[in-house]
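User: Teach me something about this protein's shape.
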Amino acid sequence: MDAVDRADLDARVVLLPDARLCDDVCHGSWSVVPRSGCGRAGFYGNLPCVLLLTGATGLVGSALLRRLTAAREPVRCLVRDPRRLGPERVRVQIALGDLSDPPSFRNALRGVDTVVHLAAAIRDQPHGSIEELNGIATWRMVEAAERAGVERFVFFSALSASAHNRTRFLRAKALAEEAVRASSIAHTVFAPSIIYAPGDPYLTLLSRLALLPLMPISGSGRAQFQPIWAHDVADCVMAALDAGAGERYELAGPETLSHREIVELALRSQHRHRRLVHVPTPIVSRTLRVLEALMKSKAPATWDEAELLEVSLLSERGTADAQRLGVEPSYMAAVLGAP
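Assistant: First, the predicted structure itself:
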C-alpha cells in the first residue's frame, strides 16, 4: 500500500513497480463499452482489454482522459504520481512508472490492446535527456508493446519533426516516429502544430513576464505556427480511435500566427499593454543555458524550449485533417477570450 496515496484506494487497479497486480484495491465491477476491433473478445484474464495512456497529466492527456472515462472506456495511466491525475484517478487503472523506467512498460502493457503515447519532454529532466525521454523511450515502448501483443499504437509526433531539424526535441520526435512506423503494430500518428490551453506553462510564463514594464521576445519572433487548442486535439484523438489505423494526421488551428502575434494575443487576453522587445538569439541562448546550469530542472525556461519558438510548425493541409475527424478547430483568440 505504500506505493500509492491512501486517497487512491478507490482506484480500480494499481500495477506496482514489482509487477504485482494489487487487486485488493479493486472495488466494484467493470462496466465496459468495448472498442471496435478488440481482439481479445473484450477480456484479458479477469480484466477487460484496456487502453494505456501515457502523458495523462499533460495538456492533451488530461483533456483526453476526461473524454475516455466519460465514454466508460477501461483506461490505464502510466504515471509517477497518481495524485496528479486529480479526480480521474478513481476512475482508471494506475501503472506506476515513467518514460525513464522501461521495466514499468511491461507491467503497464499487460492486457492492453491500444496504446496512446502522449508523454514527452521538451527539456532535459533529472531522470533523462530529451533524446532519451522522447526517442529512446518511445522505441523501447514500441518494442514492449509488440511483445505484449498490443494491436494499435497511437503516437504524437510534431509538425517539422525531422532528423535534420535544428532542435533536439524535433529530431528526437522524428526518430520516435520512425520507430513507430517501422513496428509491426497498426499505428496512427498525429503531427500537431503548437498546442495550447488557458493556463498552460507557456501562457503562464507570458503572464508572469507581462508584469515587467517591457515584454521580451526571444529572437525575431517571426516563426509561424497554427495554434490548436488541447481540447480540439483530444476530440481528434477520440474520433481517430473509432477510425482505422495507418493514418498520419496533421493537426493545425484555423489561423497562422507568428510568435510575436501569439505574444500580442496573450497580452490582449490579460488586458495588458506592453511594449515588445526582441532579445537577440545569442543572448537568449547564453542566458538560459546559464540559468539552467544554476537552477537545473527548476529553471523557469530553458534554451531547448525557447529554440522551439524559432522553428515554424505549419501544415499545408491546414485544418483539413481535423475536419476529416469531425472537429472544427477553434480560434485562439476565442479560446483565450482576447478582444
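Now, about its shape. The chain has a mean pLDDT of 89. Residues 27 and 229 are 36 Å apart (CA to CA). If you'd like, I can walk through any region in more detail.
User: That's plenty for now, thanks!
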